[in-house]
Amino acid sequence: MRTLAQVRRMASTPSPVSPLSRPSIKPDGRWTVLAGLTLVTFLLLLDDTAVAVALPTMQRRFGLGLNGLEWVVNAYTLTIAAFTLLAGRLGDRDGRRKIFLIGLAVFTVASLVAGLAPTGVLLIATRAVQGLGAALVAPTSLAIIADTFPRNERGLALGIWAGVSASALGLGPLFGAIINDSLGWQWIFLLNVPVGVGAWLVARAVLDESRVPHAPRHLDTVGAAISGAGFLALLLGLSQGNTAGWLSVRVIGLFAAAALCFAVFGWHENRTAEPLLKLSRFKDRSFAGANIQILLATSVMCSLFFFLALYLQVVLGYSAIASGVGLLPLTLTIVVVGPLAGRLADRIGPRLPVTVGMILLAAALFGLSGLGVDTKLLTLLPWFALAGLAIGLVTSPTTAAAMGSADAADHGTTAAVFSTFQTTGLTLGIAIMGAILASFGSGTTFARNLTAQHHADFVRGFSTALSVNSAIALFAAVLASLMLRSHRPTPDSELFSASDNSAPVSSS
User: What is the C-alpha separation between 90 and 127, in angstroms, rounded?
Assistant: First the structure.
């Protein structure tokens, strides 16, 4: 019987036949690949949050009502949620590089059309096409990073990817405000074009294909359609709850439709020979814990990324650009801490950094809940920095935990599930925040002519919502301590070569 040390040496020696067609990239080239994939993911998330700042301008340009403005945002997010799981499986089957390049091309072309759109209807339609491109790019980029980097470097690589990606949510409003005020709202989309073309050319030149050579050729399109319909109904219900009413027939019907779709999806996946998603994966505590963690973490983060900017502008009277600058301690701390947390997770596992990060995030949210109608920005900056530290500690190890729970052959599907939970968490968080604010007689508005009473109502609602999110963060910390591993395991696909048909070898 081989010792574990012998097995590790075997794993480091190239095998003539590999269970996964991995990229053959030189060590220096790996970081170039990471930089390109991180830039593209940053662009996708930045585009989503930057658009929110330009909504009033779009309203004046196209005469869109509230529902129309909501669809400018929702068409993008809902399409991502509906197609991400299918995109992950396509990457596993047809090649992650191929699907990534197709998705980036779709996103870039749709951005060009959106920037030139003469009507609001065409703008909304192209936002949906943008979402389709983003759905193809997001899971495949994450899977390519997991394929490209060895286990001992993967946490650092995913930490850079996750940290920069998370910071895009905070930098989006600042970016959108600068572009909208200086160039016009169209350039929020048009600037994607040269960046997208350049990224596509670089990716085509430096990325090698990675796929599962003997993956099933049958694609579970029935499962993809059912799951996509379920997520569409769920996120649409969450996004419309505050406007239509949580007990309205429309919203209850959407939630009922989502529940029915997910029940049918589970029944179908357990009976089909080649399922889109093996539901047994959720029996793995690390996989299930990482996805639940990103769902909860993203839902409470939205109170910082979106509603803090609204508070700074509507209540304190800062401009959109000044608000974005004020949030820089939050976003920059995420960028710095993310890679360090990923490296830490490589060494000690994700449990400790994620648990500590969620506790710190709970503390930051609770500290921010003491804000008022005349709070000075300077007094909020330490809480911003603490929140950035916490988010950096959470996002990178959580991403590493999700990807580390899978064999290389399932990286695409694993990344897709993770991305879907993240998108759902974002929509869920906005819905919770909006519902609490509405219960205090306040809503999310861009108006600046609100009365002092409106400001007071907004602050009371926002303070309550921050306290609720603080409690959710503490609950997530408990779950992290129970579900995530205290060490980072080495997947079997990295310990054994395909030519070695031995049974798993113990450390003895």
Answer: 22
